Amino acid sequence: MSKEYIPPKPQARADKVSIFAHIKLFRKDIFASQPAKLYRAWMAEYRLPFFRSYFINDPDLVNHVLNKDPDNFPKSEIIKGALYSLLGDSVFVTNGDVWKWQRRIIDPAFEGGRLRNVFPDMHAAGLAAVARLGPLADNQPVEMEAQASQIAADIIFRTLFSIPITDDIAEQVFEKFREYQRTQPLMNVASFLKIPNWIPKLQGRRTRQTSADIRKLLTRLTEDRFAQIQAGTAPDDLATKIMTTKDPVTGVTFTAAEMVDQVAIFFLAGHETSASALAWTLYLLSVDQKAQQRVADEVTCLDDLSFANLSKLKYTRNVFRETLRLYPPVPMMIRETRQPEVFRKRKINVGSQIVLSPWHIQRHERLWDRPDVFDPDRWTTDETRKCARKAYMPFSSGQRVCPGAGFAMIEGVLMIAMLIRAFKLEPSGKPPVPVAHLTVRAEDGIHLKLTTRGSDTSATQTT
Ligand code: HEM
Fold first, then answer.
1. Whose C-alpha lies nearest to ligand 1, atom 24?
2. What does pTM read for this prediction?
3. Pocket mutation for ligand 1, best pick of 273, 319, 440 (most atoms within 8 Å of C-beta)
4. Does 106 have pLDDT greater than 90?
């Protein structure tokens, strides 16, 4: 494998197409509906009779929207409408003062010290994953996206509620979420067009029923946990931490109903994204055997995979960073203008949709050197770090930055290390084609062949 390996990239559409052709492509897949020039442009405007949307790649503008003046660029109401039946008023969709008090309660649960506490649960999930995959390591194709989803879901359940994915309720929630995703892709045309969410095709009866089923299960978990907290028997996990944290400003805690909204988003945002990142990383390592061997060598040099040792996995971490650059699990984010703006000398009306695209900015031809090349070593240079400060945002940036970013970086590096220590990976079949679903996924899955690496897969772990 040469150093200049260029992994799969969706085919761009022609620069000029009719509105109808554009909408048709849009409905199929957002990536395929974008022209190649968007990887060079600083801004693009989409005008339809009933809506305006602006794609911004200019780092100064992105900084303005996310960091300098975020209160004037709230989350789009469309997203809230599209996800309301599942997420209610969760932190992912609220704005203003409600959002601020939710973050004041949630953020402490994800601080560094707490991450050390949840590390043993992540490690236990890693061991379970290695045990599950062991019988499949016989050189037959394994669909890794589904496997990665299960691993990430297991981690969320263990760290949030101290239960593994094999728990009866956890298993049901996982299954129902899969059903939900099949009926309600987040990155659909409705997210970009101002189509009211009461239009039946966007929120079908099946989607609403699945959401109700998921929320019923999450309510059971949450109410049981409230009872355990009151009885003084609750485990010291993320759910207990969040449910017992008082807002430092108002002194109130989440009610059970408010907590159900948050649990729904932790599960959705926390497992879909991590699963996408893990599956693409494993794919890249399967194709780039040299990189895979370097990860394996780095991991086997460690005595154990402890929390303290994780920071020694520098190359593995760079592999994960580079994957998040090329395949950011959240490919695009949408904000709305609350007041008239001027972007690059163009007037932007109130209520316009502003699209921020980690996918495009992280592959931007005027910002990145060899933007489509998979090169984990680029992360050792000052040049990359300088570029990353303005053009790398897999976890977003500013006040609405992903609260789970630290969690996800530990989880990602640990899972890569444990899986590569146990298995050799090879690609199987045609290269995957990236599509924007709820997160960046492969059109027909990611198929890999696994064989046992031959090392001791039950290696110990300490914190
Ligand atoms: C590789 C893994 C992950 C990636 C790439 C990722 C990325 C993101 C991004 C880009 C956003 C901002 C979305 C927007 O503004 O529209 C976000 C928000 C969020 N993420 Fe993550 N995330 C990951 C893992 C996690 C995990 C593990 C958790 C929790 C356990 C989590 C919880 C959340 C929540 C609650 C929000 C909403 C924050 C707010 O709006 O204030 N994420 N994430």
1. 270
2. 0.93
3. 273
4. yes
